[in-house]
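Tutorial sheet, problem 5. The six components below are modelled jointly, 824 residues in total.
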Amino acid sequence: MTRGWKVEPKLKTNGKYEQIMAAAIRVFAEQGYFQSTIAQIARAAGVADGTIYLYFKNKEDIMAQFVNQQSQKFFDTFTSMFSEEQSALERLKALIKLHFQVSQEDRYMALVYQVEMRRSDRLMKEDIKDALRMYHDLVGQIVEEGQQDGTIRHDVQIGLVKRMIFATVDEVITSWVMAGGKYDLVPLAEPLADLLMQGIQATPTV
Amino acid sequence: MTRGWKVEPKLKTNGKYEQIMAAAIRVFAEQGYFQSTIAQIARAAGVADGTIYLYFKNKEDIMAQFVNQQSQKFFDTFTSMFSEEQSALERLKALIKLHFQVSQEDRYMALVYQVEMRRSDRLMKEDIKDALRMYHDLVGQIVEEGQQDGTIRHDVQIGLVKRMIFATVDEVITSWVMAGGKYDLVPLAEPLADLLMQGIQATPTV
Amino acid sequence: MTRGWKVEPKLKTNGKYEQIMAAAIRVFAEQGYFQSTIAQIARAAGVADGTIYLYFKNKEDIMAQFVNQQSQKFFDTFTSMFSEEQSALERLKALIKLHFQVSQEDRYMALVYQVEMRRSDRLMKEDIKDALRMYHDLVGQIVEEGQQDGTIRHDVQIGLVKRMIFATVDEVITSWVMAGGKYDLVPLAEPLADLLMQGIQATPTV
Amino acid sequence: MTRGWKVEPKLKTNGKYEQIMAAAIRVFAEQGYFQSTIAQIARAAGVADGTIYLYFKNKEDIMAQFVNQQSQKFFDTFTSMFSEEQSALERLKALIKLHFQVSQEDRYMALVYQVEMRRSDRLMKEDIKDALRMYHDLVGQIVEEGQQDGTIRHDVQIGLVKRMIFATVDEVITSWVMAGGKYDLVPLAEPLADLLMQGIQATPTV
DNA sequence: CATGAATGAGTATTCATTCAT
DNA sequence: CATGAATGAATACTCATTCAT
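Model answer (structure tokens):
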């Protein structure tokens, strides 16, 4: 409904759409977006080449739909989790933890989302920007709330803060992905949040 | 280190090599690595297509040599600047400032280094990893020194610290690059370093 | 004559056949034969793609049946109109006028018959040739009668005469079709017949 | 110079252009424009597929350049032949004879020019229209001159006359082409011109 | 050293046709 | 009879790379 649906919405839901999407993500993750061919995706999905075009406008559209879908799901989950009363810092921790959990659940998806997504064609830039902007906005919102309730410093440039948090979380996940997902990601959420909050400088133990 | 220099080291230094490299960076920056063609680079460099193959093994090699070259130059500059006595935190600030300055001097190079470099082919991964690893090592070294002289907290995972610093600096530059280099980057070095050091949390004003 | 009728003669006459044929002619006229797709025809006819194959062997067969049908109808009409006594020249005028009238009644059909018909595949050539041959024979017959009753010159090659008449009528209709059917075609029948009969040369007003 | 030249005019004249053009005409003549593939043309020309794109923008461009070239050549020849004093009727005969001669010299070219040319894509229509218009204009000019010097009737619609002459010449050539060029075309010029001039009607033997 | 014409492998996309429902 | 999802063969065009001049 809310996701930018297939080319022809009249197609029966017989699982082909999901098959193809899953196969594409796997292939993108393994080969890289530009090196992946439609034929490879089709073979991986167990369908004919032409079938892909019944569900996606073209190669780029596969990536675009994936990005939209994932972003949507992520933010839906996050907002549904946190309608309650919580401090800004708690919410920040929760955000990071969720991001780590989701990534860890499906490394292929994470790889594509973290790495390959940013390689696709010019025209798709908008969808990607939207997705990233949503993340930035979310972080920005948390920081502002924190400043209001006095838990976050006022003498910071929000732009820098947003970039710092976004970039760090992103990088930790990407490192994990590129390393083959060999270690456990979720336990890093706590110390990372702490680091972002406290900084690296030793407090002069007044 | 000396790995993968030009195909034919006997080539006269008549400026063609630099011409081609500069043109390639410009084209990569504008079109993206995969969308750039050898013909475009040749035209931009004012040489024939075939000439490129006298100086570079192939398309990928152009990127690889660029990465090696830039990394080398960057670290040479940095190490030459800081043989003197300085605190770890001062060196960190200096590193960030240098990175910002270099980026600002040539936006094309920065764009390629920050964005396009990571898109190239599988085989090149090693060169890129080397370059990034050097940066990580540098940061790691600074942090360890800081922990020894008591200016940096001990209860942090060095891996996370390195990623945080690397990613944040990287992201700030990338944002600037993607925004078209419209604002001034260097003045952000100071507040960014401060943010990384102090964190976002308001200190309980003992 | 009865050659190549529908694939399955057992089909009910529920109008689908005519629907598809009419839609196909419209689409052929607008897109050109080779650029037209079965899917376009199906949509225009309001049926499923597969349905077309219940009534026609394949894309080419649609054109073949159209040609046969039109030719048949045209010659039936003509022969029924002229069982009576008439001079050869009167019959020629009548033939031209009929051709013009039929064309003007349905520009889509005329466009396909005049232009697109000749573009279709190799194998169809025979059907087309048959249709054109019938026209030639008709004209040839008229000319011979005219020579016998003394109204048509004897010092002409019948082959050339047939080609002249056929080609000229054909071309006038095609021009009209290509111009979008904007002017009135029928009034041209009289002067055209006159021109064909009298030639262009000024008679030396003996 | 005046012909719409190749994509890259800097290419050496090593005969490749002509090779490809000639091969394309042969293939178009044998297979039809839409059924011809670039691979077939390349093979027939003894070059690689890609080479074709060094000399022509695309498949359609081959046809477009052929049409422009042929038209130009034809009209150059005609106008150079007839700068002298001649009656309109003599010029008409000469035009027909030239057309027949040129066609007979190269049946492949004639076939493409007469038949396949009119099948190509939408966008090319303009080039074709230009070529045909030039012919019409030429005939129109001759007819008007004839009316002025009193050799051609005044009570004719010039539009119809032009169409009649064009169509008839065209049709006679096309018939010959389609019949495989088996008989001699040029001798038909004289009786055809006569027929167009005198018409079919027996003069009432004053 | 430099050129740039030639190569031909590689690929996204289309579309006539089939067949299970 | 009717459907339309699925098929996969077919094809124009691109572009990194080579090599004769």
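Marking note: Residues 37-39, 49-50, 53, 58-59 of chain C lie near DNA strand E (CB under 10 Å from a C1'). Full credit if you identified this.
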